[in-house]
Amino acid sequence: MHVQEWLDTVPAVAVYAVVALVIGVESLGIPLPGEIVLVSAALLSSQHAGVNPVVLGACASIGAVVGDSIGYAIGRRGGRPLLAWLGKKFPRHFSEGHVATAERSFEKWGMWAVFFGRFVALLRIFAGPLAGVLRMPYWKFLTANFLGGVVWAGGTTAVIYYVGVVAESWLKKFSWLGLVAAVLVGLASMLVVRHKARKAAARREAAEPETVPAAD
Question: What's this model's pTM, rounded to 2 decimal places?
Answer without folding.
Answer: 0.67
